[in-house]
Amino acid sequence: MIKTSYLSDTAREMKPSGIRKFFDLAAGMEGIVSLGVGEPDFVTPWRYREAAILSMEEGYTSYTANAGLLDLREEIAAYMSRRFQVTYSPENQIIVTVGASQAIDIALRAILNPGEEVIVVEPCFVSYAPLVALAGGKPVSVGTMKESDFKLLPEQLEAAITPKTKAIMICSPNNPTGTQLSKDDLKALAEIAIKHDVLVISDEIYAELVYDDAYTSFAAIEGMYERTILISGFSKGFAMTGWRLGFVCANKEISEAMLKIHQYAIMCAPTSAQYAALEALRYGAGYVEEMRMSYNHRRNYIVSSFNEIGLKCHTPGGAFYAFPSIESTGMSSEEFAEKLLIEEKVAVVPGNVFGIGGEGHIRCSYATSIDQLREALTRIERFLNNHS
Fold first, then answer.
1. Residues 122, 358: contact at Cβ < 8 Å?
2. What is the rounded distance in angstroms from the CA atom of residue 130 to the CA atom of residue 209?
3. Which of 215, 128, 137 is nearest to 170 (CA)?
4. CB 367 within 8 Å of CB 39
5. Which residues are 361's β-sheet partners?
6. Does the first or last residue of the chain, that is N or C, have fewer Cβ atoms within 10 Å of its Cβ?
7. Residue 344 DSSP class
8. Parallel, antiparallel, or unpaired for β 228-233 and 246-249?
9. Across the strands, what pairs with 169?
10. What is the DSSP letter of 325?
11. What's the sign of the alpha-carbon dihedral 100, 101, 103, 107?
12. How far apart are alpha carbons 186 and 87 in whole angstroms?
């Protein structure tokens, strides 16, 4: 007898990524200006690539330690202390992962029992809620709003916590809004996390890309070090998306649990990528700053341009996304994105795919050249005029 389906309930009920739908629509179209892809337009600096090539030439092609090269973990520990004032042991508190996404995955699987809840602050990266479900947990969405600059308010967090709440997932600077939480914002949220004894999974992958205020790690807030699982990596700030290299830092107990899962699921992150990352941490500060300054220039241009053509846009403190409101057009975010793609060949991502609070907005990556941004804005303005 053949089963009607071999799929698990979780896999069957999971929706495809809304971002992927728009990438598929744009694929094969000629003359597209894409503001859709969330990755740097810089090629990985040659120095990092050369280090990876050299590692292969010298025969370093086997597995590394499960947690990653000790030299790399030592550099990560030094980097986190130097840049963000948090101290982790390279021996038992840092795991090198296959991108930040795998770090989030093993963090959730390490802490969740079936049915336990994780508060997911939205709009957010599209994988958070599905990864909670895959780990057996229940994602609880809490939406942030433009009126509060897409910041989670303490009273919102308090209202969402139940006896089943195990953790809060938060990303600052945020994808897709670019909102950066200040030290005072983090302190206010930390008080509630401590009061209710819940963990914080802090996605800090965009920590290098902030433009107005100094960056504060959630783990650096008083009382939060032991209860924060810090996610980071090399994709965004170091322009290494295709290398798939991230890392996770946590207290010793959680790190040991995550390492067990990592051992069975992955073995270790790619060896040559680890050598490239080692070079990036030792010698890459200048490259990072050069890219950050370029993104800042583009941010200022795209935000002012959106406001000038009538799409109200708050100023993102970090990352490389603008999140203008399209409510004045009367269209839904999906309708706007589809029509813009078909009529003007500009690819953006509708805000609704990022969860509560995203409807009425579009995500526009400004990790592309100024010339491409100018062309995109010209086409968007024409699109608005045609639909006014």
1. yes
2. 26
3. 128
4. yes
5. 325
6. N
7. H
8. antiparallel
9. 120, 201
10. B
11. positive
12. 18
Tokens encoding 111: 């802490």
As a whole number of angstroms, the distance between CA 147 and CA 157 comes to 17
Q: Are 279 and 48 in contact (CB under 8 A)?
A: yes
Give CA–CA dist 139/117, Å, rounded.
6
Instruction: Sort 31 into a burial class: Cβ within 10 Å, 0-12 / 13-18 / 19+.
Output: exposed
The pTM of this model reads: 0.95
Query: How does pLDDT run across 13-37, given as a tens digit for each residue?
Result: 888 887 777 777 777 788 999 998 8
Strand, coil or helix: 273: helix
pLDDT score, position 226: 97
Enter the tokens of residue 311: 């799409």
Question: Residue 144 and residue 77: Cα distance in Å, rounded?
Answer: 33
- CA of 185: how far to CAs of 36, 81, 139, 189, in Å? 29, 22, 23, 6
* Number of neighbouring beta carbons within 10 Å of residue 246: 24
Q: Which pair of structure tokens corresponds to residue 239?
A: 């322009």
One-letter amino acid of 309: I
Residue 171's nearest CA partner among 215, 133, 117, 136 is 215
Helix (H) or strand (E) holding 161: none
For residue 34, give both structure tokens. 């894409």
Q: Name residues whose C-beta falls within 8 Å of residue 170's C-beta, 6 or more positions apart in sequence.
A: 121, 152, 181, 189, 200, 201, 202, 203, 218
Q: Rounded mean pLDDT of the chain?
A: 95
Nearest C-alpha neighbor of 251 from the set 81, 112, 93: 93
For residue 155, the surrounding DSSP H or E stretch is: helix 154-160
In three-state secondary structure terms, 148 is helix
